[in-house]
Amino acid sequence: MINGISLNLDSLLRKYQEDIFAQYLGEYPNLSKRYKSLLRSGDHKSGCRLNYHQGILFFIDNATYNGKLAFTAFDIIKIREGLTGVQELIDTVVNTFKPSLVTHTTEKEQNISIFTKDVPFTDSNNLLSHLQLTPHILNSDPEIHLVKAYWTNTKSDNEILKNRFHDPNVIPTLAYKFPNGTVKLYFRGQEFKWWSNCTDEIFNSCYLPEFNDSHIVVTSSKLDALILYKVFGVQTIAKQQEYGSLDLDISNFKSRYVLYDNDRTGMVEGGKLASSLNAVQLFLPKGNDTADLIIKDFITLKTFTNDILCKI
After folding, report:
1. Fewest CB within 10 angstroms: 13, 124, 211, 218, which?
2. Which residues are CB-neighbours of 206 under 8 A, at least 6 positions away?
């Protein structure tokens, strides 16, 4: 105990989180406001937001920082102040910030609804042609769609508005749709580029019935998975993000591989997942990811995928 305050980290976070965020935001946290990133230097656009989840206040950085999307107040202070140890964190918090006098009661969150009007991919509107993904491949894929218009609400505003964030006629927009009705919107070239009501749905799971049991590759990108399977014939699925486990049993596949991005997060998290799946972690010979390499060096990617198929 310090000044009567329990040192249980969870209770400590709940007691101090608002004041910590207020220190870095310059104002008391406002859930209806957009903020500049607290972590990315040089951020000039207000595309980040705050959201409570089970009583914990999270800073949502839609452009991500080191591959991570959501940050608690403790995450922010550790990164900003360069803190590493638990005791160092506790000392800094109780000696610098004021405990909240109000206990936050989580209001019932509105479910996010997303509806879209889609148009077929054609040679003239195919924004993915540089990835060797033809209109035929894209139109036959049940998950990926080209959006003409969309309608959505937010957790704090239940009114469903048309093109709430961006106009798809100006900003090319894709929708990834799953059989359970969830949707993930992608706004191309924007800092605020994702809007979703998905959880842990698996990309390319629609192709599992046609996969044989020889091999499977796990990535963290729908486009990477689609390229690997439809362009090169490598049976591939993809998680929503690189963190965490795979919510799918793939033990029936004789050869299992994990192929994440060629950055620190991808290498570390890919190694963790490969270990949990008893799989082999793969690394691209160059480039950051499959979509990057197919643009820069198609022949190298072709050789890489042939090597995977030859091992089967």
Report:
1. 124
2. 141, 142, 143, 179
**Alpha carbons 114 and 194: distance in angstroms, whole number:** 12
Pick the more confident residue, 180 or 217: 217
Tokens of 135: 């209109």
Mean pLDDT across the stretch 101-125?
75
Using alpha carbons only, give the angle 62, 175, 201 rounded to the nearest 5 degrees: 75
277-278-284 Cα angle (round to 5) = 85
Contact 2, 94 (CB under 8 A): yes
pLDDT digits (tens, 9 = 90+) for 45-98: 767 888 887 778 888 887 778 878 889 999 998 998 888 888 888 888 888 877
The number of CA neighbours under 13 Å toward the Cβ of 297 is 12
Model pLDDT for residues 262-278, shown as the tens digit of each residue: 888 888 899 999 999 99
Burial class (CB in 10 A: 0-12, 13-18, 19+), 245: exposed
Q: Which of 256, 190, 258 is nearest to 219 (CA)?
A: 258
Can you read off the two tokens belonging to residue 288?
């950051």
d(CA 193, CA 186): 5
pLDDT of residue 2: 42
Select the highest-mean-pLDDT range: 9-13, 42-46, 124-128: 124-128
**Backbone angles phi and psi of 50, in degrees to 5:** -115, 145
Q: Please give the C-alpha separations between residue 74 and each of 21, 51, 56, 142, in angstroms, as whole numbers.
A: 9, 15, 11, 41
For 284, other C-beta atoms within 10 Å of its C-beta total: 20
15, 55 Cβ separation under 8 angstroms: no
Give Cα 216 distance to the centre of its chain. Answer: 22
**pTM of the predicted model as reported, rounded to 2 decimal places:** 0.68
Closest to 268 measured CA to CA, from 258, 254, 278: 258
